[in-house]
Amino acid sequence: MKKDLSLDFDFTAIEKRLGCSRRTFMKFCTGVAASLGLGASSAVAMAQAVADPARRPPVIWLHGQECTGPTEALLRSEQPGLAHLILELISLDYHQTLDTGAGHQVEEAKKKSMADNKGKYLLVVEGAIPLKDKGIYCKIAGETMLDITNEAATDAAAIVAYGSCASWGGVQSASPNPTGAVGAPQVLKNKTVLTIPGCPPNPANFIGTVLFFVTYGKLPPIDELGRPKWAYGRLIHENCYRRPHFDAGRFAKEFGDEGHRKGYCLYELGCKGPETYNNCPSLEYNNVGGGVWPIGVGHPCFGCSEKGVGFEKPMFSLSDVKTHTPPNAFPNIDHRPLGGNMSAAGVAVASAAVGAVIGASVVASSKIKKQEKAQKQPKSS
Amino acid sequence: MKRRDFLKTTLTTTLGSTAAVGISSQSVMARGNLKPAPDAVGMLYDSTLCVGCKACVSACKKTNNMPPVQAKNKKDTADFARDLSSKTLNVIKVYRNGNLAVKDRQINGFAFEKRSCMHCVDPGCVSVCPVTAMRHNPITGIVTYHADACIGCRNCMVGCPYNVPQFEYENPFGQIQKCQMCNQAGVEKIDKGGMTSCAEVCPTGATLFGSRKSLMAEAKKRMALKPGEVYNYPRGNLDKKPSHHEKEIPIYKKHIWGEKEAGGTNVLHISSIDFDKLGMPPLKDRSSASVAETVQHTLYQYMALPAVALAGLAFTVAKNSNNDKDNDNKGDKK
Amino acid sequence: MSTHKALPGRILSLPFLVFLSIFLVGMYFLMQRFVFGMGEVSNLNGGFSWGIWVVYDVVIGSALACGGYALAFTVYVFNKGKYHPLVRPAVLASLLGYGLAGFGAFFDMGRWWQFYNIFLPNNWNFNSVMLEVGLCVTAYIFVLALEFAPAFLEKIGAKGLLKVLNKLLFLIVALGILLPTMHQSSLGSLLIAMGHKVHPLWQSMHLQPLLALLTALIMGFSIVIFEGSFSAVGFKEKLQTHLFKNLSKVIIWLLLIFLVARFATIIFQGNISHLLSFDTNSLLFILETALFTVPLLILLSPANRSQGSRLLIAAVCMLLAGSLYRFNAFLFTLNPGVGYSYFPSAPEIMVTLGLISFEIMAYIVLVRTLPVLHHEKT
User: pTM above the 0.90 mark?
Assistant: First the structure.
């Protein structure tokens, strides 16, 4: 029978540390495990990993060209526990926004942590990295972001690019891209960089990824753009609750029209859901609830988490519908469902009939031949 | 002697009929292709704009009160229409090649293609129908079907170059089903100044409604633009304040299907893929219907030829019937 | 006066019972067609809307029933009274063939309960080849009935009616020649409007009516020989080889004209490449042409012409050739569009075989009850 695996574990310490009940904590872990597509046992494993202070990974968190949106979004998550939890999951050794220290002191701390935790720390990059003019357009403590990133990446156990800017350059990289901004994967070409794009990205996608890392010591499976598959495996269009309107051809034609008020599909207003991979429809945003995410509040998806879409495509131009590209349920040009193919019975009956005609003719012909011979013989004799 | 006569007559008769047919081939131009009605309405399907949302398919079903086509052995309500049928008058199909990497590319790409009635300018189905159950509206150019006249011979299906009319084989009291441009009795969207349902719902303007003239001009305009240029594509009804959206001009094949094929069609198609790849038939400029009608009218104009033949035959038979008796008698005497 | 006599003997025989059972199976499926719709029994689809019910029962079936037409042509136009003995059985076979072609057209009609629409002048579309075929075939069935009526009237002894009929016979016979000429050529014209769907080797456009007419005549003469031979074997009658012998000379000319017209069309249309491609279509063409050429070679030899067995083989070849020509054009090589396919379903074929069985049974019954077959006074 089912057994509550968490019962064997002493949660007193974690209850104290996180300031939440065991029940809330387990619920959280189970939720994260579920959104990762993992089972109850993984939830327990995660809970144990989090509860064990020794397993908290040290984290170096860098900021490049950006608005600090990802961090701000994380801190302002609606459920107060979320940010707290995230910060409690990790040992945040260096974070330019959150560090209480400043100046040389903080830089020293970073260097010390990196040296102490060589090969063990998690590197989080937030913001784009300018390459033009040797990267002089973004400097921290006199060093370029390019150098800082390269240095920090050398001994990192894993690298996470958090936000669209870090994932491919984001808004900075939009044409004409004056500073030559790129994302972390473009700088760290020889390393595996997990990307969590979004502007800002959903903190839930970060926490799930980090929890996985804490629990299993490796990053979750990623796609060819470095995105964790569990969060970016599907197009927004695929899970969108306005999708039935799309399929039925019910579109809002302009903001405020009848269709818009009725909650019809926003495709004609330029929704990029059909070409943007993210889990917004299922998680909405920041656990605010009540349908709070762009499409939920009646604005077309902007495609913030999709390279080449957000910041690139005009806001109201129509998107390419990726769900509707083959292989998908489209009939081929030559597909004819109403068959008419040969059946064994059909062939058998047809050939029997033709055979009967030919056979009967041959028999009749030979009979006539005999008859004629019989007629001839008396004559000749 | 007699045998020679026999053969001679056989030969002359055969040559005579050959000559009759020969005349028909000479006077072929007597019935050329029909010309487009000046105010014909139509649609322009731009395959490069189609995103495959199938909104047109479901809108069509709704307007025509047609049930979803179910997948084999499944009783679900989702539509699995795979081809035109008596329950599906409009269907989006896909052209696939190689790794399907790029839309609207012939090699290693894919493209969508709409199948629905082309509303021919010189419709084969109208020409072949013995009982005028298929009619061609002289003003709108819409090809309509009238079940009250139909005997179900299905010559329209055979005579349609695109296999559009579909018979309800599964119904013992079935009828032909075909797109009537949402202008059938009880719907009459066009007469009321509206547009077809498929054009109405199309979010990209891939199916655009309008008069054949303005659609033809629109198609030519798109062909003339450079690929990559941003063009403001109209949606809905081209002649009545269409909404627009911007998109880059793709690499079109410089071919407007329906401009000339078999006399042309009121529903025009443009695409980045060769039309034979999209399942369009190998049509010549002259409609087969016009050839068939020319032959038929040459042979049967005012029933003159048959009447003369009948008179001649009656005379010959009457004469020979008398001889015949003589022959019989001769035979008996022998 | 008449030398036609009913054939003595039992109607029920083993072959008759075999035909009866095939007929009953066919009728079972035909009943299904009327109860559940055509899709239940046939393999018809969106591309192939005409299956064997149209192509065999009507298009080929009527050509196989052209014996009456061919003989009427010979006897009355070319004034060959000596063929008279062949006429009445041929007319009976034609009447049965055409009657079933008409019935075939009826049950193939999707909206059979509205069949009368084709007879209402306000519906007529004079551009339609089908209209001509429909009206003309119907008229010809009545003409055939009148042509065969003497056999029935003799049987019941209605001498007054017989006299009236004989007076009008010249008109009936004239119609009996004109009408098949019209609709048999039109059956070919049906292919013109099908345009590109018909394979280039069979799409002769303007020559369609002529080729169809020639095949109808070839098949008409062949079926006379075929039926005569089978009557001789089946009913143990005397074989009329001496009559067939002379008919075969006409056939030679018809075959020659047909083959010349056929190849000339293909050459002038520039379709030789299709002939030499040796794909299924080209092989079907070669088979069909062989079936037309072999009888020509057989019949060209005078020795063969006086041998009943050889004549029968030639006739069967020509019947198969003519049937294959029409099957090929309408069905086998037809290409309605990419992806379509058609092969008749077993029930569909059974319906057709049931009708053929009915035709044979009716022929046996009528030949044994009415004065149809000709007997020389001995």
Answer: no
